[in-house]
Amino acid sequence: MKLEVVKLSDYNLVEFIELVNCIFEDYLIPIKWDVYNFELDARENSISFDDSFIFLEDGSPISFVLLCLRKNRARIDAMGVVKEKRGMGVGNYMIEYVIEKLRWKGVNSIVLEVIENDEKTIKFYMKNKFRHVRKLLSLIREDLPSGHEWNYVKSNNTRIYGLSANAEKIFRRRLNWQREPLTLMLSEDRYDMREVKHKGKVLGYLVWGEKEDGTFIVDCAPSDPSVSFADILEDSLKYIKDMTNTKFVQLMNLPEDDPLNDAAKMMNFSKFIGQFEMERRIR
Fold first, then answer.
1. In the chain, where are the structural domains located?
2. CATH homologous superfamily of domain 4-107?
3. One fold for 4-107 and 139-278
4. How far apart are the first and last CA of the chain?
5. CATH superfamily assigned to domain 139-278
6. Is the dihedral of CA 223, 228, 230, 234 positive or negative?
7. Residue 116 in contact with residue 135, Cβ under 8 Å?
8. Number of helices followed by number of strands (H, E) in the chain
9. What residues pair up with 251 in beta bridges, in sequence order?
10. Which phi-psi region, left, alpha or beta, contains residue 201 (left: φ > 0; alpha: ψ -120 to 50)?
11. Selection from 87, 86, 112 nearest residue 98 by Cα
């Protein structure tokens, strides 16, 4: 197979967004980007426009891959093939093309996420030498409590980066890409960032946001070892309820081995989507 390959940095962004949205119309989790939200996602997740590619056959785009890069680590943010070209080896071609590029860049590993019941896609990635790392859980809690006790002081991405990095070290968190301190910092002012305080002492942090029908927590964690994840999460739920009167709060892509997941179980969250985090070692 021989396809023309164009870097995203050399491609019309509006046409690219249209391609992605078209390809993902029949996927288990559809993507519906506009240019503005794509650029926010790209900044937050370190998508490299020079290392993301569109694949063309006879001048027409048939597939794409979006790559995130952080030093010697990479992540496939999204990858897809137009419906009429699936099952013809295009996906294998893209994976090998990307792996070779990353190898030359000195990248050691590449990760991705896939829906846990998407057996066909899981087999495809396993065939291409990806292996299961752990589950990522998307959780929801309704019937929220109210009456928060602590103070939620407006913060910024630099302060939250420091608190997140400290919590990662203290509690030995193995954070997934979307929850890393750098991701929170690169999100800039996209979310509501709060330092959780009591009597002037910083107890932890909360990063959250609103959408049309509810709210979501990007991350929250204690920065004080004497405070538990359950304590921070419980009071954060009360704060969000008090501020918005929301019907529900979601926690997306939460690693099964993260202490925030244990806290969510205690707070009666329920799973609505499960994913596998998968990894391929390159070097």
1. 4-107, 139-278
2. Gcn5-related N-acetyltransferase (GNAT) (3.40.630.30)
3. yes
4. 25
5. Gcn5-related N-acetyltransferase (GNAT) (3.40.630.30)
6. negative
7. yes
8. 8, 12
9. 139, 217
10. beta
11. 112
For residue 193, the cross-strand partners are 207
11 vs 43: CA distance, rounded Å: 18
How far is the C-alpha of 193 from the C-alpha of 188, rounded, in Å? Answer: 9
Sheet of 151-154, strands arranged across: 4-7, 53-57, 60-70, 73-81, 109-115, 270-281, 131-142, 248-255, 214-222, 201-211, 192-198, 151-154
Q: Which tokens belong to 188?
A: 């800039």
Low-confidence ranges of the chain (pLDDT < 70): none
Residue pair 188/43 in contact (Cβ under 8 Å)? The answer is yes
> How far, in Å, CA of 276 to CA of 261, rounded?
15
Q: Where are the beta strands (DSSP E) in the chain?
A: 4-7, 53-57, 60-70, 73-81, 109-115, 131-142, 151-154, 192-198, 201-211, 214-222, 248-255, 270-281
Q: What is the pLDDT of residue 283?
A: 84
Cα 46 to Cα 107: distance, rounded to the nearest angstrom: 15
Widest CA span in the chain = 66
State the CB neighbour count (10 A cutoff) for residue 57.
Answer: 16
149 alpha-carbon distance from chain centroid: 30
> How far apart (Å, rounded) are the C-alpha atoms in residues 211 and 218?
13
* Residue 255 β-bridge partners: 136
